[in-house]
Amino acid sequence: MASLAVVLIGLALASSATPVEAQSTQVKRGAYLARAGDCVSCHTASGGRPLAGGGRLETPFGYMLAPNITPDPATGIGLWSTDDFYRALHAGVNRSGQDLYPTMPYDFYTRVTRIDSDAIFAYLRTVTPVTNAIDVNHLHFPFDERWTMGGWRELYFKEGTITPSPDKSLAWNRGAYLVEGLGHCSACHSPRNLLGAIEKSKEFEGSIIDGWFALNLSEDITTGLGNWSVDNIATYLKTGVLDGKTTAIGPMAEVVNNSLQYLTESDLHAMAEYLKAIPPDSPLRTGRRRPDASRVQGANLYIDHCAGCHQSMGRGIPDVFPPLAGNGVILASDPANVLKVIVLGIPAQNGRIAMPSFAESMSDQQIAALANYVRTSWGNGAAPDATGLMVARLRIRK
């Protein structure tokens, strides 16, 4: 009843505001959220115009230049819609339908709500347009080829807005939203594997970033936040200084200057409460656990045999290759249809290109692993109940 009352009060306030007042409120809120996401640090070149792009992002595979996100129609996001912007944040896909590189931390921003995404976009629409064309991609081959991101996404990206934990306080949940979403704290404070993905078993344990070491944010008593209080953490986030302990330097000083110092005391304390309580089994990380061996196998099979047509995230190509995300055949209570399609293929029909049979190129167990992968990925909620025995029986019957 309390949550219903909050919703009703919010609706009443919204209905009483004029369109101009509502838009002004949304823009102010978006400006605040853009600060929380620290957009300016990456999307502003040294000495450049704010948000006009050009910030250099180093990776082990070369470097990227952050794009122009001012509302310039030719070189920025002036032609983007709110849906385009939300898809970039939530799904990591740009206006042209291309996979974004994870230097844009969409694997964190996917947790941002639609209402907050729309507010940020409303704010960006009010920024002074700057004509500044950016040559974004300076990665080494083959990583400069955008199609390679399809494999990365399949292995390491899970789309989805944060769901509050009912057994946690409002402050903890707000802190989780900021730390795990807009703040994308573990993007810098966690080591990464050879493919540039966060090592899930070592999240928040510290990592090298641009030659600086981002400190351990876990509850470790020696190297982490074990002997910091919530107030200590909030003070450090606000000022970059904690007397007797440390001072922010390098990229962290930039984060404090461009982002954290502008946040409200309540939000800073909420982040501090969440950080102070980081355990290895945080419920917000349940969707980001290291995949089991069968799922990794299924992902690799999908990347090698399916992603070229059905695309990353199983979204397909309209009128050419059907989507697998949300597809009724994939979601059926029994995996028989999926297995038959993989084993037998599908002839060309209704203008769509034929799908080949994989009966000769995959074992029974591989076909089952692939079927289970597509049945449980991209929001598909079917049971991973395909087995090698089912495939063997299907081969006999065909």
Can you tell me about this structure?
- The chain has three domains: 21-154, no CATH class; 170-287; 292-397, Cytochrome Bc1 Complex, Chain D, domain 2 (Orthogonal Bundle).
- The chain is globular.
- Helix 2 (19-36) packs across helix 6.
- It has helices spanning 2-16, 19-36, 39-42, 82-91, 106-109, 114-124, 148-156, 170-182, 186-189, 230-239, 250-258, 265-276, 293-305, 307-310, 328-331, 336-344, 364-375, 388-397, and strands spanning 56-59, 62-65, 137-139, 207-209, 212-214, 241-242, 246-247.
- The protein is built from 18 helices and seven strands.
- Residues 1-16 and 280-290 have low confidence and may be disordered.
- The N and C termini lie far apart (57 Å).
- The chain has 398 residues and is mostly helical.
- The strands form three sheets. The protein has a three-stranded antiparallel beta sheet, with no helix packed on it.
- A hairpin with a 3-residue loop joins strand 6 (241-242) and strand 7 (246-247).
